[in-house]
Structures are given as C-alpha cells and as structure tokens.
Amino acid sequence: MNIFQTAEKQAKLLPDKYRGMTVLELEERAREIKEKLGKKLFIPGHHYQKDEVIQFADASGDSLKLAQLSQENTEAEYIVFCGVHFMAETADILTAPQQKVLLPDMRAGCSMADMADIHQTERAWTKLLALFGDSMLPLTYVNSTAAIKAFVGRNGGATVTSSNAEKMVSWALEQKPRILFLPDQHLGRNTAYKLGIGLDEMAVWNPITDQLEYEGTIENVKVILWKGHCSVHENFTVENVNEVRKKHPGMKIIVHPECKREVVALSDMAGSTNYIIEAIENSGPGSAWAIGTEMNLVNRIISQHPDKHIISLNPHMCPCLTMNRIDLPHLVWCLETVEQGESHNLIQVEEETANFAKLALDRMLERP
C-alpha cells in the first residue's frame, strides 16, 4: 500500500456540518479561530492552493520555504499545513517535537511523490549497485516522501529543489561519477542537460518493470532518472508552445522545469515557481506571458498583474487535483479541532526516518 492509499484509508470524512455552511460562515469561523489562537497557530499555504484557502495563510511559498518558516515559528504550537502530504512531513521533520503539524485533508497527496515508494527504491538501488557498483549517489527532489528522503540521507545523498537543482547535481557528481535522481525524471533531465550532460548519457529507471531503459553503452551513463513526473506539468506540450507562437507572436513563454525536455527547449525561460513569479513581477507593463505551471497560481498571477497580458500555456489545464483537496470546509474543520484540542490529521514522521531525512535536507541546506 502506497502513501496515498494509506492516507485515503486513514482519512476521516468531512462532517456534514461543514458541507452545509455558507462561504461567509466558513470565513468567519476561520478568522475567529485565527484571532483566538494568535501565535499558537501558524498556517503555511503553498502557491498552488485555492484563493479561498490562501487568504488565511500566514505565509505563502514553495514547500521547502514553508517548512523552514514553520521551523522558525517556534511560538506556534499548531502548524496547519495547507499543501500536500510530503510537504507536511518535511515541516514535521524540521519543527520541534512539541509542535504539531496537521494536514486539513489526509487525502491531499502528490502523484509525483507517490511514483517512488521506499520498496521500489530499495529494490532499484540493489539492482543498480549490481550494474554500476559503488559509483552512484542518490539525489531526491524535495517533492518526495519522508521515507525516500531518509533513503537518500542514509546513502550519502541530498535533497534538491527546483531552484538549486543545478548546484546539487554538480555537487553530487563531484562525489561520485553517477547519480540516481528521484522521483521526477523531467527536472533531473532538464537540470543535467543544462549542466552539459548529453541525453545519451542519461538512462531511465522504470520502477514498474524494474529495468534500466537505455540503448547505449552502460559505462557512458552519468545520470539515472527515476521514471516519475508531475501530473500537472507533464500536460504542457510542444503543441501548446506552437499554438502560442502562432496566436501570440512576441509573447514570452515561461515554464517550470518539471515540464518535458522538449517543452523547456522551445520555451523562452524555465525556472522554479519563485523564478516564474519574480520574472512576471519584474517585467514591464504591457508585457505578454504564457505560463506553464499550475492553474491556481497562474490565475493568481493574472489577477495580480492586470497591466500585463498573461495566459496559461495550456488553456485546458486543470488545477492540481490532490492539492485542491484542501478547501475552505476542510480548513475550518481542521481549525475547529485545534480549537477544541483534538488536533486530528496529525502528521508524524517516525524518529529514525526523520533523522535520516533531515540529514539529506541538511546536506542541501549547508550549501549556500
């Protein structure tokens, strides 16, 4: 049973009371509880959250930034993390033992993180060691489970973000001649390619077939990419790029590096969520942009920049479905349980797993 299935099994159903409340009633309750609990409560909200949720966030940002802010908020007894499961796990790993991290809906998982479970990874590592010997270092995107972070930490590797992936891949290749990059093949491929590693020097590990997908001489492999992806970013296509070029000549296309290599190659700019946000903020009035990232964020950027022409690279894109499980009714339900001292949907990473996962995070964070 994977993380998402476990969360589904453990999840409590939203009581009918909250389904029957109006938006105004829900918003009023959220404000009341926030005011009552004050600094005892900290609500981090990921960039991809709905506006109905993000309006109550004490801070917004990407997953690692929010986990670090949770760590810094030492007065907070309760951290209601508005994001997905692996993000809340990271917050629990970094925060003090007495702080409680809660997820408003335990079904809020991440399809990418779920594409690499610990059993698949340990099995793959054994087979890859048989192929390559002790010549590999594992790296994992922070968009992974605590168990995968712990595996990487235990085996000398580190975590990476979409902002520092180039730096961390370079560091890893200084330690060993090869890396195993989990769980997003596209971020790994785009990063390695940008560093000058050829596509013919990259292989793909398929966790379903337990096989290495590669057609060259195996000794030439430098980067082994886990066959995983973001279900949102993989839906941006070359056809989307060509359509924008045709309909909007001169419009800049900016995408997240979780997009496919061919989409990144045809775009004008590629970078992390913060990179995208800052690029739009720093652009002049009247500038035109097609953005290849999650739709809630794109819509928020559009509303924040009425002086610019901004569209989604894929006009038919849906928001991240699992992220959107966190909605206003679930947030208020979670806040009321905190108010009552019940704190359901508690995220607790087992101590040994947390220690090794923190080791992987620390190896990244100690590199400025």
Model description:
By secondary structure, the chain is an alpha/beta fold. The protein folds into 3 domains: 3-108 and 322-350, NadA-like (Rossmann fold); 113-230, NadA-like (Rossmann fold); 233-312, NadA-like (Rossmann fold). The protein is built from 16 helices and 16 strands. It has helices at residues 3-10, 16-19, 23-37, 51-54, 63-72, 85-94, 118-132, 146-154, 165-175, 185-194, 238-247, 261-266, 273-281, 295-304, 328-339, 351-365; strands at 41-42, 44-46, 59-61, 78-80, 100-102, 136-141, 158-160, 178-182, 202-206, 211-213, 223-226, 252-255, 269-270, 288-292, 309-312, 346-347. The strands form 4 sheets. It has a 6-stranded mixed β-sheet, sandwiched between helices. Strands 1-4-5-16 form a 4-stranded mixed β-sheet. The radius of gyration is 21 Å and the shape is globular. It starts with a helix and ends with a helix. The model is unreliable at 1-9 (pLDDT under 50).
| Architecture per CATH nomenclature, i.e. the level-2 architecture of the largest domain | 3-Layer(aba) Sandwich
Point out poorly predicted stretches. 1-9
| Adjacency order of strands in the biggest sheet | 7-6-8-11-9-10
Shape by Cα distribution: globular
Number of domains: 3
The overall pLDDT average reads: 93
The level-1 CATH class of the largest domain: Alpha Beta
Structural class of the helices, strands and pairings?
Answer: alpha/beta
The proportion of residues forming helix, as a percent range, comes to 40-55%
Number of E-state strands = 16
Q: What is the overall number of helices?
A: 16
CATH topology of the largest domain: Rossmann fold
Q: Determine Rg (CA atoms, Å).
A: 21 Å
